[in-house]
Design goal:
- It is a single chain.
- By secondary structure, the chain is an all-alpha fold.
- Helix content is about 70%, strand content about 0%.
- It contains ten helices and two strands.
- The chain is globular.
- The termini are far apart.
Length: about 260
């Protein structure tokens, strides 16, 4: 099923929106468990326990694949640069709000290059390369490999001064590091650009040979996910304040 967007007559695709909505819902459950831990209701190690670190990796991967799919679809539908920059400004503005909010809550580990910051940077690269078709699969693999090869070279071959430079916040957004920074969310360009490139390659395929997967109706039970996916940025910005406020109210009621 296709739904009209707010610009020109370009359709939205419920299947893509539902996939994005699934990522948002999964993220909400993850963050709710994190907030429960922060509030003392449960005890979990979100920074080291593979149960949580792997979930974070999968959630971010799904986010970026969906972002790549969306960019490929928008380009195929003739999205103008003006429309692109308006959306990019929205994402960047929200990223700055996340930085400000996280600095207020976690001044020692605030988010300076999290998922929205990463998406803002990578959207420009993907926009410029989304027309490269099947080469995007190779570019994605090379981006992922570059992170691990670069980190190995930095650890074993590079002088300590270069490692210190790339590990510092001014350049660790590139992702070629030897130690993880102290921050609540970290989504550097490498290796995550590879996932967005793969999403763009998948989106190009879906708009071509795979159109049957886009244009078919989705199950009625998935429509709520599609609705969340259509408003993903607004949902992303609101879900944590709502969760935190709910837990604060619960704590007040249980006093």
């Amino acid at each position: 099923m296709m739904r009209a967007t707010g610009y020109t007559a370009s359709p939205r695709f419920d299947a893509v929106d539902a996939l994005r909505g699934l990522a948002m819902l999964w993220m909400t459950v993850f963050h709710f468990c994190f907030d429960l831990t922060q509030s003392g209701y449960i005890k979990q190690d979100f920074y080291h326990d593979p149960l949580w670190t792997w979930q974070r990796t999968l959630i971010v991967s799904l986010f970026l694949i969906c972002a790549g799919i969306g960019q490929a679809i928008a380009l195929q539908q003739g999205q103008s640069w003006n429309r692109f920059w308006r959306r990019w400004a929205q994402v960047t503005g929200c990223a700055l709000l996340v930085t400000a909010g996280s600095w207020w809550m976690y001044p020692q580990s605030f988010i300076y290059f999290g998922v929205l910051h990463g998406i803002a940077a990578m959207l420009i690269i993907v926009r410029l390369t989304a027309c490269w078709g099947r080469w995007l699969w190779l570019l994605g693999a090379l981006a992922i490999a570059a992170k691990f090869v670069g980190a190995w070279a930095l650890q074993t071959l590079a002088p300590e001064s270069l490692a210190a430079l790339l590990n510092a916040p001014t350049l660790n957004w590139l992702g070629v590091i030897t130690r993880l920074p102290v921050t609540e969310d970290y989504v550097p360009v490498l290796p995550w650009l590879g996932l967005m490139w793969w999403g763009a390659a998948l989106g190009a395929w879906l708009m071509g040979d795979g159109q049957r997967y886009l244009r078919g109706p989705i199950a009625p039970q998935l429509q709520p996910l599609a609705l969340i996916g259509r408003w993903s940025l607004s949902y992303y910005m609101l879900h944590q304040p709502v969760l935190i406020a709910t837990l604060m109210a619960l704590g007040w009621l249980l006093k």
